[in-house]
Fold this sequence. Notes:
By secondary structure, the chain is α+β, with helices and mostly antiparallel strands.
Amino acid sequence: MSDEDKQILEEQMIEKEFQGLLQDYLNSNHRRKVDIITRAFNMAKEAHKGARRRSGEPYIMHPLAVARIVSSEMGLGSTSICSALLHDVVEDTDYTTEDIRALFGDKIAQIVDGLTKISSGMFGENVSAQAENFRKLLLTMSDDIRVILIKIADRLHNMRTLSSMAPTKQFKITGETLYIYAPLAHRLGLFAIKTELEELCFKYEHPEAYADLTKKIEETAPERNMIYEHFAEPVIKALDKMGITYEMRARVKSVYSIWNKMQNKGIEFSEVYDLFAVRIIFEIHEGIDEKKQCWDIYSVITDIYRLRPDRIRDWVSHPKANGYQALHLTVMGPDGKWIEIQIRSRRMDDIAEKGFAAHWKYKENRIEEDNELDKWLKTIQEILSNPNPNAIDFLDTVKMNLFSSEIFVFTPKGEIKTLPQGATALDFAYTIHTRIGDHCLGAKVNHTLVPLSQKLRSGDQIEILTSQSVNPQPEWLNFVSTAKARTKIEASLRRQRRTIAEKGKNMLYELFKNEPIDNVLFNKILQSYKAENKEDLYYMIGNNDVILPASKDAFFKIKEVPEKQDNLFVRYMKQAMSAIKKNAADSRSENKEVGSAALSLEPKQTKINRKEVYQLTEVKFRKNFIVPACCNPLPGDDVFGYVTQKEEVEVHKRSCQTGLKLKSSFGDRIIAVSWGDYRQYSFLASISFTGIDRIGILSTILAKLAEDVVVNIQSVNVASKDGIFEGQFNLHVHSAEEVNQLCTKIAKVDGVSTVHRSTL
Length: 760
């Protein structure tokens, strides 16, 4: 095919995608502004002319794909679509934000500028600044929420096309996605996008596990379908009698959710009982209350099947903070299986899938795109008003509230408040008002006096006791779990410190009768009180940690301590070390006698090539690579490498939570690694098992383990209660496969019910 033919085909492909975008937009409930979208497309197409993505396709296909996600999957309007089409123009071409402003107005220019500010380093080489970028992202979001929505759409398309990236970059990007973007999508109510982001991350980080679980889900589909049909038959008859319009279907859990449950509970696929949930989505009937329809359907189902009371979740009366509404219940089906049912109206379902943006679909007439997220933004803006100086800590503080489960509590007047799981009485005080939090003396929960650190439960009624003489204390930071409370306490502590320091400064200058203090004398004073700097000195004086003398003359008598000088031998050693290090690029350890001392040098560590796959060989083990205790990976596990400051490689499981933070925060140090074959060295692993207790069962398990191979067991811990035993072996193995083989052996012992590899 000639170049000209290829170009014609590409033009047709681009035009087809653009027409698809216009169709998505025209099917929405937004005002018809096709002209401005067409102008934005033409500008982006011209700006990216000749540029290609790593996959080889024309670059313009990326902004088109992002714009389609923004329109069809998020339900946003023309302003967002134009901004999505133009989101890379300022960063990658000669156009400026002012050019965008002149052609498309302030709002689109502001959003594109926000996207440009947070793009730097997000997907390039400088990913180690990810936490700082996240702070920028939230700061920009406080101006217009559409910035973060388009950024999530951009990340979703990049994840969909991740296969064209090298493995090292894949790990960096999946780490950021799981650590930042998936929780943000969840918090914004974009459930479908959050689920897809997690699925794609899982697919790239654990390809074998993903393929294996997908196959098992397909293989067990006939059995699930049969269970669903048995359950559905009487329910359909009862719902049809109600005369409502509805659809009912079984929805299988995502592969990532199933895998997560298996990991967290240490169970096999066959032990995951809630593989699917039944979803009933009804159309709203005029004149009938939405909430009443939910409870009417609930009543019909519970007339047929036995309810599990502890599994009722009423998010219809009290929606989640991200806008999610539904009525969840669990019943015992006709096949003896617990079945979860989710009851939603069509409106609730749209909001659950698309988030707050779906609200626009239900507004009457054609609408201008606006901001439905003011309430949620208030929380973010409160955090941003006093951000933690450390970017990584700031990220953790914000993320702490993004993915937390929620509880519902009441004020003394019966007003309901939503808090994250694990929130305390002090968190509640700051939720009411900053001043109430700052002067919180104690609390009454359900009319009983409790400490500030008391964790709250759903349904609690809380009354806060205050006193103007009380102010935040450093230990309060240990009592709170919400980002708002933490940032407000930190801000108050900083203000208190500044006030005390100002008082100390005035006390010092009063002693000198407000005469200037020269630098030499000031250094003597700092030295005398062992203070690091002026601010510390002022604070120590103001806080009465040090007592000023009665007269300033005392300071003039202080003898300046001369800077400590190294003796001749130490200086000679330092010079020798410096010279040797300079010329020791390829040298081995060598000893040089200096005076009466012998100097031993380690060989200089070879710089690791971060673009190549690093081989984890036996020769390198405990020299160039480290197995950290946070996840204890074994040869055969899905892993990645993190290059330390000492040019050593820390090997983490791809699912490790510590590793997830490293991937997100220090992306430029992440490398792809591959295991060698281990025979000489062994790794510590743990196997947990449970079963029905009987005499001699432990010796039977040990005998089974010792069949065919010699097993090096470090420790055994077994406990029995009421006829049930739990045990754990810590043992030395050479691979993850070896652990799986040992688990299979233990599972064959009569009386053992569960066995799995566990964390140490």
